[in-house]
Amino acid sequence: xxxxxxxxxxxxxxxxxxxxxxxxxxxxxxxxxxxxxxxxxxxxxxxxxxxxxxxxxxxxxxxxxxxxxxxxxxxxxxxxxxxxxxxxxxxxxxxxxxxxxxxxxxxxxxxxxxxxxxxxxxxxxxxxxxxxxxxxxxxxxxxxxxxxxxxxxxxxxxxxxxxxxxxxxxxxxxxxxxxxxxxxxxxxxxxxxxxxxxxxxxxxxxxxxxxxxxxxxxxxxxxxxxxxxxxxxxxxxxxxxxxxxxxxxxxxxxxxxxxxxxxxxxxxxxxxxxxxxxxxxxxxxxxxxxxxxxxxxxxxxxxxxxxxxxxxxxxxxxxxxxxxxxxxxxxxxxxxxxxxxxxxxxxxxxxxxxxxxxxxxxxxxxxxxxxxxxxxxxxxxxxxxxxxxxxxxxxxxxxxxxxxxxxxxxxxxxxxxxxxxxxxxxxxxxxxxxxxxxxxxxxxxxxxxxxxxxxxxxxxxxxxxxxxxxxxxxxxxxxxxxxxxxxxxxxxxxxxxxxxxxxxxxxxxxxxxxxxxxxxxxxxxxxxxxxxxxxxxxxxxxxxxxxxxxxxxxxxxxxxxxxxxxxxxxxxxxxxxxxxxxxxxxxxxxxxxxxxxxxxxxxxxxxxxxxxxxxxxxxxxxxxxxxxxxxxxxxxxxxxxxxxxxxxxxxxxxxxxxxxxxxxxxxxxxxxxxxxxxxxxxxxxxxxxxxxxxxxxxxxxxxxxxxxxxxxxxxxxxxxxxxxxxxxxxxxxxxxxxxxxxxxxxxxxxxxxxxxxxxxxxxxxxxxxxxxxxxxxxxxxxxxxxxxxxxxxxxxxxxxxxxxxxxxxxxxxxxxxxxxxxxxxxxxxxxxxxxxxxxxxxx
Length: 843
Description:
Layout: H1 2-5, H2 7-38, E1 46-51, E2 62-67, E3 73-78, E4 84-87, E5 93-100, E6 107-108, E7 112-114, E8 121-127, E9 147-149, E10 153-157, H3 169-174, E11 179-182, E12 187-190, E13 196-200, E14 203-204, H4 209-218, E15 224-230, E16 244-250, E17 257-268, E18 272-283, E19 287-299, E20 302-312, E21 317-327, E22 330-345, E23 348-374, E24 377-405, E25 408-433, E26 449-472, E27 475-498, E28 501-504, E29 513-529, E30 534-552, E31 560-575, E32 580-591, H5 595-598, E33 602-606, E34 609-612, E35 620-631, E36 634-653, E37 661-685, E38 688-703, E39 710-727, E40 731-740, E41 743-745, E42 748-750, E43 753-763, E44 770-776, E45 783-788, E46 799-805, E47 813-823
Parallel strand pairs: 1-8, 13-16, 34-37
Antiparallel strand pairs: 1-4, 2-3, 2-5, 5-6, 5-7, 9-10, 10-15, 11-12, 13-14, 15-16, 17-18, 17-47, 18-19, 19-22, 20-21, 20-46, 21-23, 22-23, 23-24, 24-25, 25-26, 26-27, 27-28, 27-29, 29-30, 30-31, 31-32, 32-35, 33-34, 35-36, 36-37, 37-38, 38-39, 39-40, 40-43, 41-42, 42-45, 43-44, 44-47, 45-46
């Protein structure tokens, strides 16, 4: 029996020691390999650049190296987006280069000879002429698979789902495998871990979880190309995010000429929804211009139920309560972007973009409850909350990219990000005992009229330089540096209306807090292509960060932290057969507390509790070991991870005002995870395709901020599926769904939840667009339940059952969307990747 009781402790010790030793070994291996790889001698190759008669690059052309003797193929490759190609070294002999591309005449080079004296050959610039024959019209239609496995994780091709049109970015993200969004606290988890960072087009969204969710809820999914779920990102990405990165990549129209698209949606659930968007682009061989605008309105509905017991001296001690809240938020969102890419010559390009978004949220809520201190003592609470929140986001981006020589290029990016949030909530409440007398004095937390204020301004400057060089046909170097400076200023607090004047409440606030963060980073990775079947990428990223506060009205909120750390990474790829591949990787990551987590704000929750930050939070350090295997489109992976100092959001804690409940983030000593992921597509027939996914495994964590320290181990899983049917007369429909099992988090247990969705699409003839109907939550199962205090008692001896019903719990959400693309359909242009690649999350 003693062995059974000590099993979690033994598992933890073994897990920690193994990963610690493995981490040290990986750091030594990375440094050793980097030293050895610097000494590698360059080898030969056959290379060149393809252009059209106007000097524009010719991407994705087929380049073949033919033996001069019998015209058999020795090597082949595709040109990249800049028209470059490189063929690995063939045996010495005489060869001819053949180039083919649709719409162009075939090209044959003069005979060339490879020998010991001339092992490499540079074909220079090859100009292809447009074919004299003109095709009347060629329409190529292809559908990307819904899921693809990449080096750092899984890519979800959003437009492959019929449910995308008319949805928000948040709804698409919620349907992605392994992603769980809890509407109770707006938390986002990936594969059961909460330390996930969200990026938009490679920029970290430096905002709190609430702000990220609000932004994604207003963003139209019509403009999203794909979602990258990067559980083990390589070294070129920021090391932030112990659960990994979620990169939302928006669509960019790359077709030559003038093109665009429009989408209009209308819907209804418990209340009305509407959205509209337009995108335009003008792409020429020298200049690409693009712009877009979208607007949405969502009238939602939510219901919160809580009941239980807790010991809160603010209301007189041990109390049993029943609490209900009904909210009808109205969210409005609009964004606009404008950008340009200019190619000075085939080797140099520069450009920039401006992105602006504005969101408003008006939350009207009615909360009421009963607090029973004794059988003869009841306190009744009734309140109306009217909250108004506005946020603005501006991103300015510039880049310059230049090819120094064959296989060598440099890229400079600079971003300036400005974010401002203004919010206030007015509360009109009545809190009386069973004799009708007010509870507490008029200047207490229970004043009849209150308001909370929360104003935040964030400014982020980012500069980044990336360098890449093909040292040899089998060795490539990527390196870079990045600097980020973030300045925040926040004012917040709770005020009571007394004698016609707003005065600070008795709970106290730190209403002025300025925060500065400086992060300097440098990375280097080497990719070694051993042969056509095996390669290894070895990298390391060093980051130094300094966080400090300018002033804080409470000394507890003074911050001055410095951290310098090396984050190694190793990726190994082996093609086992023509249809299967094995991947092995090791990465180390960090999750820094967000500025909202550290800030000393105080905002209203209910008569006995407030939300606030925790300036004592420590960053989370994570070690990941991953094994991946793919066979055709079947994807499998096994991930082992160890998190130290896990950041847990909104935990029940004590604070400056005795007897008041503070909801603030806390650190847990560690968390161990063993996660199995499988994605299995099945093509049943030409008109019926299926996709099934599973994510699950073992989780173990330790909690020590509660009166009693404890360890919890459990197994949890998530299932998802999609069935797509293509019918006659250009009809198609999709049924999809997911189920998340029950599990545990900090001191709470949560129930399982799932959802079933439906989508139908009708393509109109003559390219006149399409209509799509989506129905979210057919079974009206959008409910989320948890049991606080089921594992151990907190400082308030809480035992509380909480249930949140989303809008679809009352009625499924219907949306009808009309979408149409227009314009020319010529060759793709060579849009550059915009700016800072890795900023924008922690506010």
